[in-house]
Structures are given as structure tokens and as C-alpha cells.
Amino acid sequence: MVEENISTPQHEKTHTNRLKRNRILSLMAVIFLLLAIGYVIYWLVWGRLEIFTDDAYVNGNIVKLMPQISGTVVSINTDDTHLVKTGQILIKLDDTDAKIAFQHASAALAVTVRQVKQYYENAAAAQSMLIIRQADLVKAQLDFKRRSGLVGDRAISREEMQHYRTSLDAASAQYDIASHKLGSALALVENTHLYQHPLVIQAKTNFKTAYLNLQRTTIVAPVMGYIAKRNVEVGQQVDPSTWMLAIIPLKEVWIDANYKESQLRRIRIGQPATLTADALGGLKFHGTVVGLSPGTGSTFALLPPQNATGNWIKIVQRLPVRIALDPNELKYNPLRLGLSMRVTTYTRDLSGHLLPMVIDAKPIYTTSVYADQYAEADQMIDTIMKTTSPDVFLTVKKNA
């Protein structure tokens, strides 16, 4: 009886612990079941519509700056990591030869204008000479006609009549010569005026070429961005094939998310996406799908794969999907090219297209730093021509 009384409390304690353990296990099973149900609901409602990849990288434009003419570098006004603005002077080339060529072209333009002006004056003189020779011919014709009837009456000798005939033939020949000279003069200036004469246009073209070559000894930034990969040094001889430096406009970056081909079924243009950058401590960005590449990454590789072989192993291909970022977020948190990103695309909305259906009618990227130079050249040409000679238009006719 004593042993039975002693074992009873121990048995009750063991039973109580078993009940607690069973209760905890049941509670944990319920929790896991609820979590599983919640995950299934999340996957059915949201999860299956979210496509994730960590094979994504920041990409953007790389403006490789090259000279437009050959020359020797005399100064460099920037370096790697520096910020430059559009139109800022970056590099200068030796301009001695360009200045000499420009002065020669300026003088040649002025000489050509004077030469063409002389062509117009020669045409006017040839027209006046033709009028004189025409008057002489008319006079010789009248003299010969009046005296031709007097030969039979012996009022005039045959010798004198022969002189009048000779004078008529000479006047006719002089008229023909003057007519040909007028035609030759008109061939140089007919149906044109001084400023649009072919020789003047050629001289203006040579002037513009010399002027632009002089301007191109000063190399400016075509876009705003950050300098990278400076490969040029002072004293280096460069030509139009020399890559001097690169400009990276960080405001024009995007994400290339490389999705597996099995993930592409629901991706459409216009779908939203969230992105996180490891370099910024997991900072979240927002973007939009703007296009899908027309080919996989391996297709554009230097050595494309050849699958028509005897030993073939299937490799899941990836297709780059371009995602545009919110410019306001980039303004305060700029990204660098090549950084890795984690991308989640939300594919609930399937109303977009798989490929772009609209053709861009306007240029996407432009620069105006070179257009102003040409306009200034036209102003200088007008000044030179107006100073040399006023504009004229010849209205003479060959058969005046």
C-alpha cells in the first residue's frame, strides 16, 4: 500500500507532461497547417503571378568619344569619375594647321566672289559689243543695198561696189564673233546669280570644311554624364578611330533581367516590377517592363552555340527583359553600370504585348552641340560675300 501511494503522484506527473506535449504538438501542427494554407492562398492569389530572378544587371549608354579629325592632343580638361555637362570642352588638339587652312579658305572665297563678279561684267560687256556689231552690220547692209542698183547705171564703179560687199561680209563676221563671245560669257553666268554660282558654292563648301575642321580641334561633351576609361594622353597623335574616353549618362540606365525561358509565358510589356540593389543595402526600386529581347543571350554571343551535334545536353536559355526605372528614384539613388539586381515582375495584368507594336517616330537620343557650329559658319560666309560684292542677277539674253 505504501509503494502504491508513492508511485501515484509520479504517474500523474507523467500523464500531465504527456498531455502538455500532445497539446503543444497539436498547436504546432495547427500553426504549420495554417501557414501551409496561408502560403497556398498566397501562391494562388499572388505568388504564382510574381516572377523572380537574381540574374539581372544595370545597363546603360556608353558614349565613346572619338575625334572627328586627326591631330595632336595639347590639353585634357577632365579625368575619370568627373562629371561633365553638354557642350563642355574636354580635349583640345593642336589647331595650327587648321587655322592656316581656314585662312586660305577665307581668302579663296573672297577671290572666287570677285572672279565670278568679273564673269558677270564680261557678259554685260559682251552684250554691249554685240549691240555695236549688230548696228555695224545693219549699216553695212543698208550701204550695200543702196549702191547695188547703181552699178548698172555706171554711177558707181565695180571696185567701189566690191569694197561695200567686203565691208558687209566683215560686219557680218564681226557680228558672229560678238554673238559667240556673248554665248561664251553667258555660259559662265546664265540662269544663276552671284551667291549661288557653282564656283561660289564650291568655295563656300571649302570654307565650311576648313571652318569645321578648326572647330573640331576643340572636342566637347555631346551629353551630360560621368567620365570613364580615359585612354588619351597629352601629346598623343589621335585620329577618328581613336577611342579617347567614355561618357556614362547615369540618368539613362535600365535593368536587363535575364529570365528563364520557362518564366516568359506571362511576361508582357507594361507590367510593374520591384527591384533591389545589393550595392545599396537592398534599397527597393520600382520599374516597368518596356521590352523583351528578340533573342536569347547565347544567340548574340561571339561564338553562338551549335546544338546540332551528336552529344547534346539541354541547357535552359535566358531571355533579357528590359525594365525601365523610375527617374525620380534614380535621381536620389543613382545606380552604376554592371551592378547586380534582384527583380520581381508582377504578371497579373496580361493586357500588354509580347513585343513592341509602335514604331518610334522621333529620335530617342539627340545632341545639338554640333549644329551650332554650322550655323556660325553660314553667318561668316554671308559676311565675307556681302563685304566682297553685293548680290547681282544677270538678265541679258543671247539674242539681244
Distance between the termini: 158 Å
Strand proportion? 15-25%
Low-confidence stretches: none
**Radius of gyration, CA atoms, in whole angstroms:** 45 Å
Secondary structural class: alpha+beta
Strands ordered across the widest β-sheet:
1-10-13-12-11-14
Number of strands: 14
Helix tally equals 6
Q: Helicity range of the residues? A: 40-55%
Largest sheet: 6 strands, antiparallel, barrel
Query: Kindly state the mean pLDDT as a whole number?
Result: 84
What does this structure look like?
The chain has 400 residues and is an alpha+beta fold. It contains 6 helices and 14 strands. Strand 11 and strand 12 (283-292) form a beta hairpin. Helix 2 packs antiparallel against helix 3 (158-189) and helix 2 packs antiparallel against helix 4 (198-215). The longest helix is centred in the N-terminal third of the chain and has 53 residues, at 96-148.
What's a quick, concise take on this entry?
This protein is an alpha+beta fold and 400 residues long. The protein contains six helices and 14 strands.
